[in-house]
Design brief:
Helices cover 50% and strands 19% of the residues. The protein is α+β, with helices and mostly antiparallel strands and 298 residues long. Strands 1, 2, 3, 4, 5, 6 and 7 form a 7-stranded mixed beta sheet that branches. A hairpin with a 2-residue loop joins β6 and β7. α5 packs across α6. The N terminus is likely disordered. It comes from Triticum aestivum (Wheat).
């Protein structure tokens, strides 16, 4: 994204209420871009939602919507589709060449995996979870915007569900479609000061081994590939041998148990059963004699 991400205060500008033929989205984008080209570039401006926890298209909570513009209309429709669990309507907002970068994934998702992700997201949200937009920011380019959001369950904010999404759109015919998405979501793990300690340790290693650090930063996957090779050539044979040895060892133990231990245990159990049966019979006879003696004296 070429535009800066610095927020400035939002000022409402008066407009004349003239009756004219509404412009298409492409015409609106062209007109807005032409106006912006006459001035020096400005940073992203923030558009706060009137009620941050009001959700989208929620009539019983005021039905607040975003200020109208081509990009905010796309964002409004996008999150409304998610809240309505309407994957067909959401698919119509996504460009065929759309790619999505998500902090939960190591690699960008293509159009197929992007649609699959949003379909699974709708399934995970079920019927009571909704997106609520806290703030929308416009970039210098009229086709770039960012949205800060959180999730709610029956109007109550769900902890650890805040996030920020960046959108880049492109016009296809008269429609404005989402071409790139970059999603940052809040992590439920809060390392607090540990994150700074980890950063200190990593930067120490980088300064200590600058050549290896440069190689790693140029190709981070090389470290994973090296570990995989190390595992296959060294660790995997050892692990396979240990597993096979453990299987043979415990098979031998089971055989020993069946041949020697199990007969002894069965014999001891049988002996104990016969012994306590004998004791029970003798005790019964003693009790019978005592009962007869007691009966004679009574």
């Amino acid at each position: 994204m070429n535009s800066a991400l610095k927020l400035v205060s939002f000022h409402y500008h008066p407009s004349f209420n003239l009756k004219q033929r509404p412009l298409s989205q492409r015409q609106q984008i062209s007109a807005e871009w032409g106006k912006r080209q006459q001035y020096s570039p400005k940073p992203i401006r923030a558009i706060p939602v009137p009620n941050a926890t009001g959700g989208l298209n929620n009539a019983d909570r005021g039905g607040n919507t975003l200020p109208s513009s081509p990009m905010t209309n796309v964002i409004q429709e996008f999150y409304s589709s998610l809240n309505d669990k309407d994957i067909a309507r959401l698919t119509q907002l996504i460009h065929p060449d759309c790619t999505m970068k998500h902090t939960s994934y190591y690699k960008p998702l293509d159009i197929k995996n992007t649609i699959t992700y949003f379909a699974r997201l709708m399934e995970a949200m079920r019927k009571n979870v909704k997106f609520a937009i806290d703030e929308v920011c416009h970039g210098v380019e009229p086709t770039v915007a960012a949205a800060m959001w959180h999730l709610e369950w029956n109007g109550k904010i769900i902890p650890f569900t805040k996030g920020c999404s960046f959108y880049t759109c492109s016009a296809k015919g008269e429609a404005l479609l989402i071409r790139k998405v970059h999603i940052f979501n809040e992590s439920p793990v809060k390392p607090v000061n540990l994150a700074l300690d980890i950063l200190l340790f990593v930067t120490f290693l980088f300064d200590l081994l600058p050549k290896q650090a440069e190689d790693f930063l140029q190709n981070p996957e090389a470290l994973v590939q090296s570990f995989v090779k190390f595992y296959k050539f060294l660790l995997e044979p050892v692990i396979v041998y240990l597993v096979a040895y453990s299987i043979r060892f415990w098979s031998f133990v089971v055989k020993l148990y069946k041949l020697y231990v199990e007969p002894i245990i069965v014999h001891l159990l049988a002996y104990n059963f016969r012994f306590w049966s004998f004791v029970a019979r003798r005790l019964d006879m003693v009790l019978d004699v005592l009962y007869n003696i007691f009966k004679q004296f009574m």
